[in-house]
Amino acid sequence: MASLRDLGLSEYEARAYRALLRTGPTTAKDLSRASEVPMGRIYDVLNSLEQHSLVRSQAASRPKKYVAVEPDAALDRLLDEKKQELQTQAEQYESVVDDLSTELDAGEPVDGQFWTAAVGAEEATDLLLERIAAAERRVVVVAGAPATGFDLGTIGERVTAELEAALDRGVEIRVLLSPATVDELPRSVGRRYTSELADMEGFEVRTIPGIDGTFNVFDEIEVCIEVPHPLSADEPFAMIDVKDIEFATSVKDQFEPRWAEAEPLTFG
């Protein structure tokens, strides 16, 4: 059940405000009895409610009387305070992230291999988006067959958005698609490519038949490989991420001749 405490009031403040709505204009002493807020605390509580602009006082009367602000106005004020508080916190967190981004350094890739896997459509997509976001120089995207187990329209939009962000960072991106994948792409992805990506520096899309696998090469040191379900084409796939300079270089070397043979892609 919703409570005024959810909007930042203390238990005593919530009791006092609710009691004022019932009693109408009243003194602190009478409000203490009506709200069951101890007399030793009631003035502090009323002062706090006044600071929140939830209570008005009649200073000219003796003893001083208090009245509650109408609920709609009171709730709007509490909501505005919470929004401002959250905005301030968000700005503080953004500042912390900015500071840490310059302080933390992933370092140069180490020799040897490291691999990880994400199983399931959502997890695999998150891994792919994470690696695109981490790219610093070059990204190669090869999609030989439409991936199964997820909504290609939704995922295509998310991947396209992440590719656009990478281009804004100065990352060079080459995308090689099979005709089957092109046919499966939703119109929304094609429209976004035409209107937002096609003219961006460092971005190029080509198509060529005869490619079956789906993989991505990042900065020539890392490869993400889509793995279809071995027993059911309708089940979510997995994604394996391999960090290995020698392997990534080998994959890219095999990619280059196919890229040279491919035709530039245009969306009608």
From TrEMBL:
Entry-linked InterPro entries: DUF7436, TrmB-like, Tscrpt_reg_TrmB_N, WH-like_DNA-bd_sf, WH_DNA-bd_sf
Alphabetical list of CDD domains matching this protein: PLDc_SF (cd00138)
Domain DUF7436 residue range list: 109-265
Gene3D superfamilies documented for this protein: Winged helix-like DNA-binding domain superfamily/Winged helix DNA-binding domain (1.10.10.10)
Domain called Transcription regulator TrmB N-terminal: residue spans: 4-71
Domain of life assignment: Archaea
A Pfam family per the record: TrmB
Alphabetical list of PANTHER family matching this protein: HTH-TYPE TRANSCRIPTIONAL REGULATOR TRMBL2
Record-given protein name: Transcriptional regulator, TrmB
Lineage: Archaea, Methanobacteriati, Methanobacteriota, Stenosarchaea group, Halobacteria
